[in-house]
Amino acid sequence: MDSVLKEYGRLQKSGDFGKYVSDIDQLLGALQKARNTINSAPQSRREQLALVKSSTTAFAEKIGNTQKDIHSSLSKYSKALDKKFKIDIETSYNRSAFPPSSRTLLDRAIAMHLIREGHFEPADKLIKDASLSIPDVIEEEFKNMYWILAALRGHDLKPAIDWAASKREKLAAMGSNLEFSLHRLQFIHYLLTTVDEETGEPVNSTRRALQYARENFAPFGERHMASLSKLMCAFLFNSNLEKSPYVNIFLSPSAWDDVAKSFTKEFCSLLGLSSDSPLYLAAAAGAIALPTLLKVGTIMREKHTEWSSENELPVEIPLPESMFQFHAIFVCPVSKEQTTDENPPMMMPCGHIVAKESLGRMSKGNPNQRFKCPYCPNESIPNQAIRVYF
């Protein structure tokens, strides 16, 4: 990858179109100056046109050289990519995955992704051009979300706190701690800030934080008593928080980012949406799986074999749980069906797990019938299997 990164760095350096803008601005300035001179002194027309011609030629040559540098860097970067990535990724593209009938669904996914990312103008254009039916309220909600996030980036918690208070019952039903987290961060911010943000006047940070705690922490006493106790004990170390037992709470460098992520997650949850765009997750999963799938495809072509199972990958693709773990479900590897309370997952002594119904079919309904595990040589009986809870 070193050669690719090297050429990419060169492309970034030479591909600055600001050079074009600067050169063209200078050329326009020279033309305007010549025009003004001719208007004020018509007798200098021939002389000014000669100057314009020479300066235009010089600027054109300069712009041409800049363009050559960009094209040269782009060409070298493309060659470096082709040399590094020799496999044609077109071989992994399944054209039947997006038939013409699904075009509207694909357009909608793209439009929703743009809305979720805060790109409202191109989203509106796509919705109009593709005649999509996406309720205006969704875009308005996300505009509100980004307004609140902008305030959070400016260390202004009030819009987020007001929103959380207005959704208190719904957030409580979800088991969310967002409202308390926002109030806790505001308390910490007050305790660490010795100057009023609005007036610039010095303030008694301890008194202000204590007053805020009295006014806002009472509703959270029963559920968050342990956290509140730590916040109150921090007053004892206010002059030396760096060496206190609470340094991780009060001087956390990621505190504002963490609360912004938590706010985004809860905001999307109340809309019935995931915190990450499904289109982004699909693209990320595809990028992770692509090298393995290309390799498998090459092997299959060489051996003249095909993968026969529909809607199933030929190999297992491990994906990072931090991004791709959504909810606790288990799909039986034998029946290919999700387990339920009536058909729960059962773990055999060898450690492999199948659905209860699959266990019954393998043992032919006899609880004492020995059978071989479909994934290893070990044998067991249904009575030895235990239920698994996710």
Report on the structure:
- The protein is mainly alpha-helical.
- Helices cover 58% and strands 3% of the residues.
- The chain is built from 16 helices and five strands.
- The chain has a three-stranded antiparallel beta sheet. A two-stranded antiparallel ribbon has the order 3-4.
- Strand 1 and strand 2 form a beta hairpin.
- Helix 2 runs antiparallel to helix 3 and helix 9 runs antiparallel to helix 13.
- The mean pLDDT is 83.
Overall tally of structural domains: 4
- State Rg: 32 Å
- Strand residue content: under 5%
Which outline best applies?
A: flat
Poorly predicted sequence stretches spanning 5 or more consecutive residues: none
- Helix proportion range: 55-70%
Class based on secondary structure composition and strand pairing:
mainly alpha
Distance between the termini: 41 Å
Largest sheet: 3 strands, antiparallel
Can you list the strand order of the major beta sheet? 2-1-5
- Secondary structure tally: strands: 5
Give me the number of helical elements: 16
Order of helices and strands: HHHHHHHHHHHHHHHEEHEEE
Mean pLDDT: 83
Protein name: CTLH/CRA C-terminal to lish motif domain-containing protein
Domain CTLH: 141-198
Domain RING-Gid-type: 332-376
Subcellular location: Cytoplasm
